[in-house]
Design goal:
heterodimer, A: about 180 residues, mainly alpha, Rna Polymerase Sigma Factor, Chain: A, Arc Repressor Mutant, subunit A, 2 domains, 9 helices, about 60% helix, B: about 260 residues, alpha+beta, Phosphorylase Kinase, domain 1, seven-stranded antiparallel beta sheet, 10 helices, about 50% helix
Chain lengths: ~180, ~260
């Protein structure tokens, strides 16, 4: 095995599961996530020679994210779907996404019975920060790198995502005597 | 009305404030009921997400697919001269004499077949592209190298590892540590392979991890030696048990470990 390939396996492939999990939460259709991960790993490999980043995981996540949105645009070329707009951090009204994409829309019509389904009711950019922060334990700075936004935006988006998750929980569990997360 | 400190409370919860800031926020949390409630809420949300949210791991077919794609990308990277030259036969002859003398010296019985396998290896290689078991083995090896996947039972003591297999796998291979020979048994694992729960012995050899898979040999046949995605696979049988060692270490090292394992089986 040549040197580049070996270094790639040692430094990058240990993050493959995490990258896949991230892709699955970005693109709920497994086949889409599969393609996204493969494309991302190949892009990462091609860029690996010039790689001088210390944070391989965040770097790989950023590539996964780019691949996801590129693929999403291709799939949705005919249907223009704007992302939910950013609001000020203090804007408490922006608890849930007003503009769900078609992926969210199709799921929204059904009920959520657990936290996994509840997550799918949130817009992708909320799922994204929640997975990166709560599951992968990335710092604000790392999330900012992955998502390509300022740290302040990470903070406000994370706050809205957490409130949105709680809001969805309250809405879905109404009438069900179960504790709020 | 939202308390203006909410984002700082969140940053505190996320470990993003320094010690002085943390002390300030802790004081604030004692005074502000709203932020106190928010902090509890953040804790509950995290606990729920970490406890209940599904974590998707790379399925083995996808891992194999990506390995193939990487192989192609790596080949495309290689200089044209290297691709044109007869690289593999050169490697075979390097390993050849050592392997031959080792096998004929220590285990003359199996030596002949091993030499024959080594000689035909490079003739077979182009035809072996579609053995799914080989892909599964490499996939399982790759998965094992990811954090927290390598070992289910941590032990260099064969008396601990072997009984563990009884409850977790369908086979019970002989287990031995060869630390003095350079192959340290670091633990065991169960992997689903060829429709069975196979027992995996994990050896550390220098910087290399060697997974030795064992399962009941009744279904698919494996080539004696094959290289896939840059990993070497060395397969052999002992009685009804199929063995396959997978690693990025050299052939010689794999053959030596195989001989050691055959010596104790």
């Amino acid at each position: 095995m040549d040197d580049k390939r070996r270094r790639f396996e040692v430094q990058v492939l240990p993050h493959l599961d995490a990258a896949y999990n991230f892709a699955r939460w970005l693109a709920p259709a497994p086949a889409d996530a599969d393609d996204v991960l493969q494309e991302a790993v190949l892009r990462a490999f091609r860029a690996f020679d010039s790689l001088r980043v210390s944070d391989v995981k965040a770097w790989l996540f950023a590539i996964v994210r780019n691949c996801h949105f590129t693929a999403l645009k291709q799939r949705q070329r005919r249907a223009q779907v704007p992302l939910p707009e950013e609001h000020d951090a203090d804007d408490g009204a922006a608890l849930v996404a007003q503009v769900p994409g078609p992926e969210e829309e199709s799921i929204r019509s059904s009920e959520a019975h657990n936290l996994n389904e509840l997550m799918q009711l949130l817009p992708a950019e909320y799922r994204e920060v929640l997975v990166l922060r709560e599951i992968e334990d990335l710092s604000y700075r790392e999330i900012a790198e992955v998502a390509g936004v300022p740290i302040g935006t990470v903070m406000s988006r994370l706050a809205r995502a957490r409130r949105a998750l709680k809001g969805q929980w309250m809405e879905q569990m109404q009438g069900t005597p179960r504790a709020v997360p | 009305m939202l308390c203006p400190e909410q984002l700082r409370v969140q940053a505190y919860f996320d470990g993003e404030v320094d010690a002085i800031g943390a002390a300030e926020i802790e004081r604030h949390l004692e005074r502000c009921g709203e932020c106190h409630e928010l902090h509890l809420q953040l804790q509950r949300t995290r606990q729920a997400l970490r406890g209940e949210l599904e974590y998707f791991r790379v399925p083995q077919p996808l891992a194999a697919r990506i390995g193939n794609a990487l192989d192609e990308a790596a080949d495309a990277d290689a200089p044209a001269a290297a691709r044109a030259g007869p690289v593999r036969p050169a490697r075979a002859s390097q390993a050849g004499w050592w392997t031959r003398s080792f096998w004929t010296g220590a285990f003359s019985g199996v030596g002949l077949s091993a030499v024959a396998a080594a000689a035909t290896l490079f003739v077979w290689m182009p035809m072996l592209g579609t053995n799914p078991l080989v892909d599964d083995l490499v996939g399982a090896h790759l998965r094992s190298l990811m954090p927290d996947h390598l070992i289910d039972v941590v032990s260099s003591d064969r008396h601990t590892v072997k009984p563990w297999y009884a409850g977790h796998t369908d086979v019970s291979p002989a287990v031995a540590d060869f630390d003095t020979q350079g192959y340290k048994l670091v633990g065991g694992r169960a992997d689903y392979l060829d429709h069975q729960r196979s027992a995996v012995m994990v050896y550390q050899h220098g910087p290399h991890t060697i997974n030795v898979f064992t399962w009941a040999a009744d279904r698919h046949s494996l080539p004696a030696q094959v290289t896939r995605h840059g990993y070497h696979l060395l397969a052999w049988k002992i009685g009804d048990l199929q063995y396959c060692a997978v690693s990025d270490t050299g052939w010689d090292e794999l053959h030596a470990l195989a001989a050691l394992i055959q010596g104790v089986a």
